[in-house]
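My current task is to audit a protein record that another person submitted. Thanks in advance; the entry in question is below:
***
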Amino acid sequence: MKKIFVCAIVFAFIHAPALAEKAGDEAAVLATLDSWNRGWAEKDAALAVQDYADDTDWTNAFGDRFQTREELQEGLEFIFSLDFVMAGDSADNEFEDVIFLTPDIALIRSKLVRQGQQFNTGESRPDRHINHLRVLERRDGKWQIVSHMISQAQDKR
């Protein structure tokens, strides 16, 4: 029994740094959602894209695609200038699932609901249930978004 206890203590000391590192990585990966969400709330394209790689690949729910951070920032500046798009507000993410494929590659799957957005006619849109899938890569010690795909759940009725 004493040997089992000693083995358990040794095992815990060996794996504790790895667990702490993974928790730190998960927090750093999830922090990229904060800058994106704050950028949208503040209509600040530079803030929204601060965690994107220079060679990022981004596609929204309408099929618009940008393949660099610079293109994405310019695209968001245009999107943020559209009052009907920026009408309303987004709630907090309903979930933020993180999966590490390797120590340096992570996926985040998240969902939020956008309420009060409008069509370009000014008519109110139904609530939009928006899913995000992001691929992040640790580059030079920093987590960067290298791919981001957005989809919208459609009412099935």
About this structure: The chain has a mean pLDDT of 85.
